[in-house]
C-alpha cells in the first residue's frame, strides 16, 4: 500500500521548483521603473497573507553589493504586504531586490525585480532569489507529509470503525492504532525539524541548528505542528481508555456517549492543525473553507481508515466480523462519501477559480487525476457493497426451511442409539473447520459464507490500495499552487525567477540641433488585456530629460485594430498611463511621438510582440 503512492509522490512532487502559492500582485517601486530620487521603502503586495523571514529582503546595488536595510515589516499593518526601509544615500544606477516569504498555506515563495535611480546602469546585478529548493529536503518533507496523512487516516478511521461498526473483538485493530499513533508522532517531529531548511531551501543538515528550530517555533506552521504534538498526548490517553471501556463491554450508554464525544473533539482538533496550515487558511471564504477542509479530512479518514480496519478484521483468524459489522461499515462509508463529494466540490471550485484552470494549471490536472482515482475507488466500493448485501442475506438463507443442515462431525460408528443428539456437537464445529475457512463468522461452515467473505476481502483490498494512491495524489495536490493563485500569479507578471516580465523597448530619436536622445517604454505585463505604461526620456548624455509632450499609440495592422492611444501623464521625471487595453495577441506597431520644443517633434515606430 505504501510503495506505489510514495513512488507517485516522488515522481509528481520531486520535479520543479518550490510551489508559489501567494501571488505577488504589485511592487513599489514598480519593476523596471526609473526614479528621479531614491525611494524610502520597498513594498510588496501579495494575493494573500504572508509570513516574513529574517532574510525576506536582499537589496543589491549596481555593483552587486548588498545594501544595508532595516528589518522586514508590514505596510499599514496589512498581513498581505512586506516592506523594508532603504538607506537615504542610494546612488545612481539599477538596484535589484530579491525577496523570499512564506505564503499563508505554509509554502515558501521567492522572486526578484529591479528599479533604477537617476538612470539605469549599463549592467544590473545578477538576479538572485536565494537558494533553490533542496531536492533531499523537499523529498523528506513530502514523504513526512504523506506519512502524516496516512497515519491520521488510520488513527481516526480505525477508532471510528471500532466505535461505529462495533466488531466482535477489536483486539486485532489495536496494533493498527498503536502503529498509526507512533507514525503520526514521528512524521510530525520530522516536519517540525525540516521546517526551517524547507523554508530556506537548504539541505536537511540545517534541521540540527537550534536557532533555526527556535525561529520555527514562533511561526504559524511551527505552532500548529506543536499543537498537533500536544494533541497526541490526550489521543493516546483516549485510546487506552476506549480499549478498557471496550473490554468492560461499554458499561453504560452515557459513558459510551461521553467517550464518543471526546473522540470527536480530539479528531476535529487534529484535523484543524491541517486545515489551518494549508489552502483553506488563505484566500476567499476562509471560515467556510476551514469547516469544509476539516469535514473533508475527517470523512476521508472515516472511509479510508475504516477500509484498512475492515481489511484487518477480515484477515484476522478469530473471531471474524459478523454481517452486522460489515453492514454498519457500509452505511458509515456511504455517509462519509456523501460528505466527501459535497466538500470536495466546494474546495475544487474555490481552488480552481475558472474552468480554464482545470486543464491549464498543474493544480487542475492533479485534481482531474484525483477525480479519476476517486471514481475508480467508488466503483470498487460499489462492488464491496454488493458483496456486503449478499453477506447480510446469507445467514437467513441458511435458516430456510427444508435446507439440508450443516454436517456435524460424529464419532466413528455413529452416535449411541439411546441418545442420538446431533445438535450437541454444533458449538465445536468451527474448530473442526479447515484453517483456511476458520473465523469467517456466522454461517462460516458453509462454502457460501466463506466465498462471500473472500470476495469481500478482495474487493476491500482493491479499495485500500487505490485509497493509498489517492492519499499520495492528495499530498502532492496540497503542495501545488491552487489554480486561482496560479492565474493571479500569471496576471501579476512577476515570476519567481525574477526575469523581467514587462515588455521594455528603447527607441532612439534625433531632432536637428537638439541632438540624439532615447525614450525607454515599459509595457507591463506586455500581454493581452490591461497594461500599465511607463516612458522615460534620456538626453544625449544619458541623463533624464524633460520634454513638453510625449504621445504613444498602438496599432495591430493584421486585425485592423487601432490606433489605441495611451493617455500619458507627466509624473515629474517620467511619463505613465495606468491602463492601456490591448485586446488581441499579435505583433503590434507602437508609435511614439516626442516633442522637444514648441515646433520640434519626431515620431518613431517599433514592432512589439503581445502574448495572450
Structural topology:
Blueprint: H1 3-13, E1 24-28, E2 34-35, E3 41-46, E4 50-51, E5 57-60, E6 66-67, E7 81-85, E8 93-103, E9 108-117, H2 135-165, H3 171-200, H4 210-216, H5 220-247, H6 253-275, H7 286-315, H8 323-352, H9 356-360, H10 362-398, H11 429-432, H12 447-478, H13 483-492, E10 503-510, E11 516-524, E12 529-538, E13 549-556, E14 561-566, E15 569-570, E16 575-582, E17 586-595, E18 601-610
Secondary-structure-based class equals alpha+beta
Shape summary: elongated
> What Rg do the Cα atoms give?
34 Å
Sequence stretches where pLDDT stays below 50 over 5 or more residues: 1-20, 250-254, 396-446, 492-501
Helix percentage range? 40-55%
Main sheet attributes: strand count, strand direction, barrel closure: 6 strands, mixed
What amount of the residues lies in strands?
15-25%
Instruction: State the end-to-end CA separation.
Output: 44 Å
Please report the number of helical segments: 13
Average pLDDT confidence is 74
Instruction: List how many beta strands DSSP finds.
Output: 18
If you had to describe this structure to a student in words, what would you say it looks like?
By secondary structure, the protein is an alpha+beta fold. 41% of the residues are buried. The longest helix has 37 residues, at 362-398. Helix 2 (135-165) packs antiparallel against helix 12 and helix 5 packs antiparallel against helix 6. The strands form 4 sheets. Strands 2, 4, 5, 6, 8 and 9 form a 6-stranded mixed β-sheet that branches. A 5-stranded antiparallel β-sheet has the order 10-11-12-16-15, with no helix packed on it. It has 13 helices and 18 strands.
